[in-house]
Write a structure and sequence with these properties.
The chain is of the alpha+beta class. The protein has three domains: about 120 residues, Beta-Lactamase; about 90 residues, no CATH class; about 140 residues, 2-Layer Sandwich (Heat Shock Protein 90). The chain is about 45% helix and about 25% strand.
């Protein structure tokens, strides 16, 4: 039987206090009279306070003791005033100390079931390490983008691409996908620092793809044979779809058989997939569906990419895959498709298109199935 003083309410209180002390956040509870009725040690550590500093636990008095640590003190004091002028006020924000420390803070109104106000609870979490790491990876992503931009400029100068509108358009079109992946990864890292490793892997893969593209274009004046290697074609297709820059109003459907191994140049075929998929996205400015299927039949892989976009005019179809054919009109009409044709031909495969104007297009890719 429990000792008389160890009632269930007492135990619940002790457990709650223990959990609050173990929290990585500094926590303080302020009652309706703006007096601090609870604080944990982490709260003292973050603000550089001691228990003696809270001998007069009036919230405004305590804040006056530490406000000089805050970089933008006036703005922070206004936020505190707003919190106590509105009992419903609940918000999460960040404050920066003069020493560079970043503190994420959150305040929640304390109300009972009847809606009576009893004060509010404040959480303060030191996120300096995450912010510094985030800034480091953002700088790294920017550095990688500068490398790609530098290589692109070298290519433009070496090949005098200013006089070649078709090739310049092809380069810009091809690099859009990996550069957008880098941008998305940097944004993901900024929003969720815990996903830094995932974002960094995407950035590095995208940079390598960009550099491979540029190297292929650098040597585009001579025929480049593919470097064949056993590749998981299913995974290559999944990666292309996962990293495809597309708006939310475009959905993707995927269906593949279980025959995975292909003898291909994975970098070149990935670029083919990126081109066809990006053209599908650009063909649907108002949204739609991209359907991707892949199966093996009669000694070859058949990959079909269909969209529900604007379609391709019938008079354009015969010249769509020719390098001399390009357009500066929107929706990606033909951009990059000459590369797709050349690459698939060098693999012993082919690419074909069927389209109905206003209803969409279907691109069919054939790759030999080599055991």
């Amino acid at each position: 039987m429990l000792p008389e003083e160890d009632t269930p309410d007492t135990l619940r209180k002790l457990i709650l206090e223990a959990q609050l002390e173990l929290s990585p956040s500094g926590i303080t509870v302020v009652d309706i009279n703006e007096r601090i009725v609870f604080w944990n040690k982490r709260f003292l550590d973050i603000w550089g306070l001691t228990d003696e500093d809270l001998s007069d636990p009036v919230w405004n008095v305590v804040i006056e003791k530490v406000i000089n640590r805050v970089k933008n003190a006036e703005e922070f004091q206004k936020i505190l005033a707003d919190a106590y002028s509105d009992q419903e006020y609940q918000v999460t924000d960040m404050v920066k100390f003069r020493d560079g420390t970043h503190i994420e803070w959150k305040t929640v109104s304390l109300q009972d079931k009847e809606g009576h106000y009893h004060g509010r609870i404040w959480y303060f979490t030191d996120i300096s390490q995450h912010k510094n790491r985030e800034q480091g990876y953002e700088n790294y992503a920017s550095q990688l983008q500068r490398i790609v931009a530098s290589r692109t400029q070298e290519l433009i100068e070496a090949e005098r691409l200013a006089a070649s509108g078709a090739l310049a358009s092809e380069i810009a079109h091809d690099l859009r996908s990996p550069l957008q992946s880098i941008r998305n990864a940097a944004y993901m890292i900024k929003r969720d620092p815990k996903r830094i490793e995932v974002g960094l892997e995407i950035i590095e893969k995208s940079v390598l793809r960009s550099l491979d593209m540029l190297e292929e274009m650098r040597s585009s004046t001579r025929k480049t044979e593919p470097h064949l290697a056993r590749t998981n074609l299913n995974q290559l297709i999944r990666d292309a779809l996962d990293e495809l820059p597309r708006p939310d109003h475009i959905t993707v459907q995927l269906e593949m058989d279980t025959v995975e191994n292909a003898w291909i140049d994975s970098s070149q075929i990935r670029r083919v997939l990126d081109n066809v998929l990006l053209n599908a996205v650009e063909a649907m400015p108002d949204g739609g569906v991209i359907s991707v299927t892949k199966h093996s039949v009669e000694g070859k892989f058949i990959i079909q990419v269909s969209d529900t976009g604007i379609g391709i005019p019938e008079e354009v179809l015969p010249n769509l895959f020719e390098r001399k054919f390009y357009t500066t009109k929107p929706h990606g009409l033909g951009l990059g498709l000459s590369y797709c044709k050349r690459t698939l031909k060098s693999h012993g495969g082919n690419i074909m298109v069927d389209s109905v104007l206003g209803k969409g297009a279907i691109f069919t890719i054939e790759i030999p199935l080599i055991d």
